[in-house]
Every structure is written in C-alpha cells, then in structure tokens.
Amino acid sequence: MESKTGTDTDTEDAKSHDPKRDKAKREKTTSVTGTRWWVAGLFLLPALILLGSLVVYPIGYSVWRSLYDADGSGFVGLENYGDIFTNDATLTAVRNTAIWVAVAPALVTALGLIFAVLTERVRWGTAFKLIVFMPMAISMLAAGIIFRLVYEADPDQGVANAVVTSVHDAFVDASVYPKARPNAQASDLKASGGGSFTSTGTVSPGTPALLPLVGIAPNKLPGTPADAKAAGASGSGISGTVWLDFKLGGGGTKGQVDPGEKALEGVKVEAVKDGKVVASATSGADGTFSLPADADGAQLRLPGSNFATAYSGIDWLGPTLVTPAIIGSYTWMWAGFAMVLIAAGLAGVDRNLLEAARVDGANEWQVFRRITVPLLAPVLVVVLVTLMINVMKVFDLVYIIAPQPSQDDANVLALQLFLSSFGGGGNYGVGSAIGVILLLLVLPVMFVNLRRLRKERQR
Question: Is residue 70 scored above 60 in pLDDT?
C-alpha cells in the first residue's frame, strides 16, 4: 500500500479543524445565549411544569370532560355542545357576549382616545388622568357593589335615578298629591279616566262645592298646610273647598269642613260642560277656589295631573337596560386603562407631522382624523384586542349588578359556565363545553394579536 503524502495529510488536518464546521457543531449543542440546551431546559423546567399544570392540563381536561355527561360517568360525545345551542339561557348568553364584544371594547377605546388627546391640551391633564385611572385600582367585586347602588330604582338611594328625576322635575311639574282620592262616602266625585275624577252633579251659584279627599295622612302633606276653610257664596260665580277630610284622632262629620282638617293647596279644579273645559281654578292656601259665572251648570273635574304618581326614574336594571347599564359600569372601570396606553403611544407621535398639517391649513378635526388616529393605529389595535379578550370572560360585574329577576336577561357565557357547573345546575359536562367554546372564541383574537406582534418585530 502506498503511504499518504504529506500534502494529503495536511488537507485532512485542515478539514478536521474547519472553523465553520466547528461553529456549526457548537450551535447545535448550545442555545442562542451560548448556553447548552440541556442547561437552558433545566432552568425552564419549573416554568414548563407550572405552565403545564395550570394551563395545558386544565384545557385538556376541560375538552375531555365536555364529552361526558353531568356526573362524568357516561360518554355523550358532542351532545353537550348541542345542548348549548338549543338551550334558551345559553343562547341569551351567546347573544349578550356578542353585544359585549361588539360594544364595550370599541366604546372604551374611543373614550380612552378622546381623554388621551384632550388631556394633552389642559394644564391639569395629569390630575385628570389620575382620576380616570383610579377605578382600575378597584376590584370587580367592589365596582359591582358600587354600581348596584348607583342603579338603585329608588331616587333617594340610586344616584342615576336621582339625577334623572331631578332633570325631569326641572321641566315637568310634579303632581301635588299623588296618593289622594275622593272620599267615596261623602263626595259625588267619580273616576272619569286618565286618573281624573268628575262630579256626577252640576254646580250653581250660591251653593259652595265641597270636594273632600282622603288617602293621605295629615302628617305626610307637603309643606306646612293650613286649616281648611269652608267657602262662602261668591255672587254669580262658583266657589268651593278642596280639603283633606280626615284628621288625626278622628272625629268630625264626613263631607263637612271640620276644625283641624287640613286644606289641600294647589289642586286644579276644572268646570266641564259637554266634555269641554269652560273654566278652571286652583285651590288656595286655605283650600278654597272660585270659578267665574261661566261655570254655572257645569260639572267639576279634578284632572289626573293632581294625582299622578311622581316620576321615579328609569328601570336601569330591568330586562331592557340591564346589559347596557352593566357595560356602562365596565366602561367606567376600563376607560383609564385605555387612556394610559393611548397616551403613551401619543407621546411618541412626531409633533412635526401635526404642525406641518396645521401649517398646510388642516383644522384640528382633520389633524386628529387623518394624522393622529392613523399614527396611533397600532396602539389602538392593542387596546381593542386586549379589551375584546377581557370582555369575553366578564363575570363579576354581571353576577353582582344584575338582580335575580333580570339576571337571565343579562347572562353572558362566563356567567352561564358558572351557573351550569356550580350555580345549582351541577352539569360539569355542559360547563366544560362552554369553557371550550370560550377558548375557541378567544383563539382567533389571540392569533390576530400574535401576527401583529410578529410583524412589528420584523420591522
């Protein structure tokens, strides 16, 4: 055999010490940071175990459990998923969740954008941002309790109805005696529709009309009422008295003005002939009133406006408005979150672009719509996507704010999951199926978010 030449030996030595090949070997056995893969894996193992036990295992178990019946003893396949889309309560939850996803994130993002832009132009912008962001420090439980009180139906307790009734009463006169009614035993006033009362007989000059009312305790009359006075004859006109035909301690004669009985001031009295009002008057402080001679032969009518129930506000937590009301409370909590993120993005916007647009003749609305918003688009997408994921699992606010009679109308998927599994339903199969559906609904949003992050990283 021929021995290798010196040149061949040198070539083989050069190949065995090729720097590129040695570098490739090192890269195969080490991570990006230069650490060996097994060392990196050892350090990541606790996190992977935690992730697997808290995320991967629950997801896998939920998928498996959704294929079994309520107690987990029988395999039912996709029957639980079929029950979800045939059950009225679950369909209502799906509809309300869709409303939440469509309305709440857009509303919160829009408010956050407005607050972020406007606070840049005021001296006390930092203080305003602090106030708007403060609700984020409140738990969902506490916020739910707060807004359950805010939406209370009684205007004396609920702030929302206190404001509404105050505005309403500023433009519409409130009724004088909402609970009053004629004394059926001593008066010929009969109900005549629309809450009004009309006398069966007619009036004539020289005979004062007596209009006794009951239904109100003397100590519940508004203001400081005076004692009633029996009206005297008023020539050719018609006179009369409207009073409370009752006094504390009893006594007296029904249908007669007795000492100590209180006058009803401000009651409107109409004289009606052939269905038309020919004259009207209002009772004075002593309960007396007088009508002109045109009222001769007319019937007396007390309009329903005297007895109409006082306006008590809006039924915020009723079946119609309960979902918008809860979305309002969510907006109050999360508007500060959106404002802070958008304000951070706004701080990075090149001011030269805004000034150049103004120099070119653009007004503030055009600058905002065509310059500011497009430049903030990445931040707005982040806020919108984050809120969409958040509202899909909203539970606390709905469970606490919605009263029991209207809770079914405010139901969402996360609440239905709880009710099906732990709220008396006891059907863990259906509850697991709802959980899987929630996961499937969140995945597309997460996928869009990951794609956006990958594109930004490539830039």
Answer: yes
Decide if 140 is inside a domain.
yes
pLDDT tens per residue across span 79-109: 888 888 888 888 899 999 999 999 999 999 9
Q: Are residues 345 and 413 in the same domain?
A: yes
In a domain, 302, yes or no: yes
The answer on 396 and 328 residing in a single domain is yes
Domain, as residue range, for 211: 181-306
Query: Is 356 part of any domain?
Result: yes
Same domain (yes/no): 219, 343: no
Answer yes or no: do 330 and 354 share one domain: yes
Give this prediction's pTM: 0.73
One domain for residues 146 and 186 = no
Domain count, the chain: 2
Q: What is the pLDDT of residues 25-60, one digit of tens each?
A: 555 555 555 567 878 788 888 888 988 888 888 889
Q: What is the 3-state secondary structure (H, E, C) of the chain?
A: CCCCCHHHHHHHHHHHCCHHHHHHHHHHHECCCCCEHHHHHHHHHHHHHHHHHHHHHHHHHHHHHCCECCCCCCECCCHHHHHHCCCHHHHHHHHHHHHHHHHHHHHHHHHHHHHHHHHHHCCCHHHHHHHHHHHHHCCHHHHHHHHHHHCCCCCCCCHHHHHHHHHHHHHCCCCCCCCCEECCCCCCEEECCCCCEEECCCCCCCCCEEEEEECCCHHHCCCCCCECCCCCCCCCCEEEEEEECCCCCCCCCCCCCCCCCEECCCCEEEEEECCEEEEEEECCCCCEEEECHHHCCCEEEECHHHCCCCCCCCCCCCCCCHHHHHHHHHHHHHHHHHHHHHHHHHHCCCHHHHHHHHHCCCCHHHHHHHHHHHHCHHHHHHHHHHHHHHHHCCCHHHHHHCCHHHCCCCCCHHHHHHHHHCCCCCCHHHHHHHHHHHHHHHHHHHHHHHHHHHHHHHC
Mean residue pLDDT across the chain: 84
